[in-house]
Amino acid sequence: MRVANLAGRAVLLVADEALDVHKASGGLFGPDPQELFARWDELRVWEARGEASAEPQPYDAADLGPAVPAPRQVFAIGVNYREHAAEADIDVSERPPWPPTFTKFPSCLAGPQVQVTLPEGLVDWEVELVVVIGRRTDRVTAAGAWDHVAGLTVGQDLSERITQLSGPAPQQYSLGKSYPGFGPLGPAVVTLDDLGDPGDLRIGCELNGETMQDARTSEMIFSVPELVERLSAVAPLLPGDVVFTGTPAGIGGTRTPPRFLQAGDELVSRIEGLGTLRTTFKGA
User: Fold this and answer.
1) Between 3.10.25.10, 3.90.850.10, 3.40.50.12280, 3.40.640.10, what CATH number should domain 74-282 receive?
2) 3-state class (DSSP) for residue 145
């Protein structure tokens, strides 16, 4: 099942068409995409019964909004791939006791085809697997963590590095990563049964056709189940919350010379089985 946000309405993507959930369920579910996650188990049962009272319709992919438009909590994980740690000169030869965790503010979330206005500074890219929570998750173990995941989607953790790394005391990670449009998310939330091995997916991005990042999610230091266990040990995860799980090697700021996003660039981010984001950039 692939759940998406089409012009603010909850839909299921079926091949090249979209099924409006509110209309197809005869009003059993509302039109708000975010509200579906609070009734995720009911949605799965309804979809499995095949009782839709409407037909899928063609749609324009440019009308897709963020697959999860208004999560109550957005968690983000730093330095979760060893090669990314190495390019940033961070020693993870011994596994850290906790995954570095910060947030992106929900107002930065954007759809899978969006144009972002570049702020002043140095804007970098970070393609990430994003986990979407489907049940209240409070102190679960890694062994049971997948049962609490509604699905997975593609995310970009765009980052303005000057703001992010400004001092004098702890850095402004959340601010530097939360400018408008800095969280492209989508095109859909894909359930685990649509994926062969949800813990091992190819992930990467291209900038103007040139490959920048290319890895597999199985290379994470902390796997998805481990992240869910660690986060839920501190803060209950709520239906519709999202977790950006970290980026592999290949970001712009660690290149020689560094390379940052410019007006006119096109960034294409993709994850095997989940889909593609296309983000273009313009000047202020």
Assistant:
1) 3.90.850.10
2) helix
